[in-house]
Amino acid sequence: MRRHRPIVWILLLFLTLLAACNKQKEAPGTPGGGSPEDATRESLALLREGKFDLFWKHALPPADFATLRADWPLRNAAQSPVTPDDRAKFEAGVKRLTEPDAEKKLFADLRPILLRFNRDYKDQMPLLSGVGQSMALTAIDQAKDLTLSQKRQLREIVNAVAPWTQTVDWADQAKAKEAIGVLVDTARKSGLSTPEALHAMSFEQSMATWSTAWMGLKRLLDVYGLSIDKSFESVSIDALESNGGSAHVKITYTVLDKPIQTDATLVLLDGRWYDSDLLQRVRDEHARLVPPAPASSVPAPPSTAPPPPRNPGAPVADARTR
Predict the structure, then answer these.
(1) N or C: which end of the chain has fewer CB within 10 A?
(2) Which among 257, 279, 258, 256 has a CA at the least distance from the CA of 267?
(3) In terms of residue numbers, what domain contains 183?
């Protein structure tokens, strides 16, 4: 079963749109922004709070946002059929996380593992961390959904997080109880029941589920001292260049106090600024889900109108909406 990948989207959005400090008030639901800095700052504010429905409305031109919502049932239909084994595992996992006294039952199962880890593996954390770091870097290199810039950022994040994993007391039972509480609370709030129900969600329902997962992830990492909000608060932006309908900016933020830099290109469409990579990704996904109709065998009459001017160097659609 090929499942939805909200965490992948969240990471892509986080890496693409970290663009400015969060001191300016957000403008929910306003497409684009008056400047490249304003557009990315507003997107970041919505992303940080998990307001994904408003984020998409803000981050895409109106026509592309309408297309994204219209395509959502097609994304669900494109999922591979759910096998009986998939269904059984999914439902068993949901039941364990949402049943009465789930916290106590899960901790009772986890406690012997924590004790064994503390006894047998605590001293091996540097080795285990190194193995995990190597596996993560390999997975990033092999990922087909990521751009070179996104891969570079993820490598830097992994290299910043790996030393932190060696400092955390993973056998701490109080932290484990708190983490289990977050997982159980997140699962109950998500309202998941079956994989079929997950695939049948509307756009709005999916965005609400993404939000629940995102806020739960932030709370879970906070338990062990890794604050995503602190990374959002550390962001700064420097405009590198602006040329008519496009702008290039440098973005700097920290993960566990380690500075990370990236860049982004924005395009100006109908007086608003949009992230070029994100917009292109949405349009490519639409083209995959809704291939263009075959060309008619009857030739069209010649047009007497002159062709529109072109700028081959401009990104996306050179300041045009569909």
Answers:
(1) C
(2) 279
(3) 6-285
In a domain, 315, yes or no: no
154-195 confidence digits (pLDDT tens): 999 999 999 999 999 999 999 999 999 999 999 999 988 888
Residue 60 has which token pair?
A: 């895409």
121 CB neighbour count, 10 Å cutoff:
13
Is residue 280 assigned to a domain?
yes
Token pair, residue 133, equals 């770091």
Q: Are 151 and 141 in contact (CB under 8 A)?
A: yes
Q: What does the block give as tokens for 48?
A: 């940080």
Residue-wise pLDDT tens digits, 39-73: 888 888 899 999 999 999 999 999 999 999 999 99
Tokens of 108: 């009772």
Looking at the structure of the chain, the number of domains it has is 1
**Quick one: angle between helices 52-59 and 62-77, nearest 10?**
130
The pLDDT of 211-237, averaged and rounded, is 94
Question: Is 298 part of a structural domain of the chain?
Answer: no
pLDDT score for 66: 96
